[in-house]
Amino acid sequence: MPEDRQSFGDGQDDFLRGARDGLEAARRFQAAAAVKAGAEGGKAVSEIAAGAAAGGPWGAVASAAWSLRHTLFKIIVCFCLFVLFIAVLITSLPSIVTNNFSGPVNLSDSFDGYSAVISSCIQAGHDAALAQVEQIIADGGYDHDLSISALDDQGKVSPDYDASYILAAYSLSAGQTGLSKDDFQAKLLSAAGQMYRVTHVEKETVSAAGVAVQYAACTIHPFDQSAILKAFGIDTSAPYGQTGSTYGDIISNMAKSLKMTMYGAAGSGMTPAITDADLNAYLNTLTCSGARKELIRAALSLVGKVPYFWGGKSGPGWNDAWNTPRLVTAAGSKSTGTIRPYGLDCTGFTDWVYQTALGVSLYEGSWRQWDNTYAITEAQLLPGDLGFMAVPGTVPVNHTLLYAGKDAQGRKLWIHCSSGSGVVMNSPTYVTQFRRPIGVNLEADLLPAVS
How many C-alpha atoms does 310 have within 13 Å on its Cβ side? Predict the structure, then answer.
């Protein structure tokens, strides 16, 4: 009927704008981020976990609702979907963060608070490992300076833990009831001594005076998440009730639900995180200086863990603000003015790697990093050198990458923070410029000479 079409306007009237604005507001407050994806253009709402189920059906319903011809149907269906989404999603979140939940802002504050507790407890675990290293040196009468120089600390750059997973595991450990921050912190701290395994090998070198000197080459191994699961009394392979799923499955789905709620994505990007074991295995294949290996170690530690964020910069070391919702304020991107999980942009990533591994800055922006490097040939590339998509100023938006060596097929591998994917290692073919930092000693061994 023409009157109905004119009255409702197929998306142009105030009622429909109100419904869409409501969904947009919900997204910005991180309570129903994925619903908006279905409301804007009929895109599927991806991977919303509710209890033991992932959310493919949610996207289908939202998309179907928006494709309805009659505006009133759209409003009713989307409103019901919104209410149902909130009700189901909240019950699937870790109860430790939803205690006294009265709105999305409180949920965000609760998540940030518990994430800070986790970070401090993991740091306590790393401090305990460092104290064990000091004890090994003291007990063996080893040369302290040489021993510290030889320390292989595989947990210092990027703690290999997932805050959402830890919160979900704790909540599920008591069936989502009777949980508290004090109990949570106490159990985490009880596992501090088991979070990082420490081993050592006695080695000897000769001093400038020709005297043999013994030192301990200690290794702090990657973060061991099983220590926390043991503290919570969880066996991830055990069946969970009559659901047909294991504790591990339920915890993973609950963690995904929390991530979707906080910033509309189930992970940092499209790339699986590289494990510390795989990272170290790759480093062992490289034949280059210790300094260059440290650059690659730092770079690989962020693969799959840090998303792309336009204008994202950070000081050295792991930044707890990464993966938390933040408004994009830097101009010049289609993401400007939107809320995204915080991370790094391409030059923010390369600068972070050099700061973290070697304590030197490449500065911000492709122009400044270009000016602080000099040209090398493609044949001269070594791990830790830089690549640019183009000469700055010749393209609207440039891209900077870190060279990581070659794969088994001889393809060049680059580590970079890519828009849409976050930190990745792959073999892009668009790199045309090859550069090396000015005034940086990339051939240093970093370890004492061993006889």
Answer: 17
